[in-house]
């Protein structure tokens, strides 16, 4: 018996700092219409889809920072995307910057939501692994200030039992941490959706540019195989105000093989008819967690944050 479902990744080309959200939403709608035409049930958009990757900038003023964030979702601008996707019966993952004001307390998250083909917002995820740095790096060609602009996600790594499959979400740097996928794997996840904005160049040391794509692929291919799940990983790509972001959006099978990949650094839809049953032989043999895992030997993974320093004991 197979459980075939058509999955899509909607890669975005660059979003310039001066681009309006309305213009970006028009691009997203065009991609979701293309996906529907190709029979897709779910479409994954990138991390921070609605704006340029603003953590590359040092922003001092609170109001200027908040201008990159959404205080409601759907917002008046994004409601057109929600409406069109519902008309087409296509579910989607959308990454955006979320501003939460509760009783005078402000929190900012790097967030993704899951909307099902009936237009119901069924899930939210807030980025846990925030890369980069907190303070201004004067010698860096650009900044990477996610630790300055975002709070650490507070929702964990949930998996939702949707109408089609068990679906989980993560965001960008999360894909480099195997814990991300194993927590979802232990919930029986069948499809992990993730968006990313990955600078083409490393601000910390001289790194060959090809390694950016290699590490991107290595992370998601290993995760898909080791957790017997499909992964849809989607870039915002290209040059945003002269700052390059890698493309390489791909759909990865539970075997770890790349089933579809983007060829450009522009708006580009990738599509694949996935058989969700393909994962069952992997999760019932080599990665049969219940039969093979030995949690009694894994204690350090949750007890320690850094190597050699016990959490809360030796760290300053
Ligand atoms: N971007 C990058 C990412 O994890 C990065 C940051 C690149 C960290 C390369 C480490 C190495 O793909 C975001 N937004 O997390």
Can you describe this structure?
With 316 residues, this protein is α/β, with parallel strands linked by helices. It has a single domain (4-315), classed as 4-Layer Sandwich (Nitrilase/N-carbamoyl-D-aminoacid amidohydrolase), CATH 3.60.110. The chain contains nine helices and 16 strands. It has helices at residues 21-37, 62-66, 79-88, 146-149, 178-185, 210-226, 280-283, 289-292, 300-303; strands spanning 4-11, 42-44, 91-102, 105-115, 121-126, 159-161, 166-171, 191-196, 230-235, 238-240, 243-245, 250-252, 258-261, 268-275, 304-306, 309-310. A six-stranded mixed β-sheet has the order 5-4-3-2-1-14. β15 and β16 form a beta hairpin. The longest helix is centred in the first third of the chain and has 17 residues, at 21-37. It is globular, with a radius of gyration of 19 Å. The model has no long low-confidence stretch (mean pLDDT 96). Bound molecules: D-[(amino)carbonyl]phenylalanine. Residues 131, 172-173, 176, 196-198 line the site of D-[(amino)carbonyl]phenylalanine. The site of D-[(amino)carbonyl]phenylalanine has 7 residues, from loops.
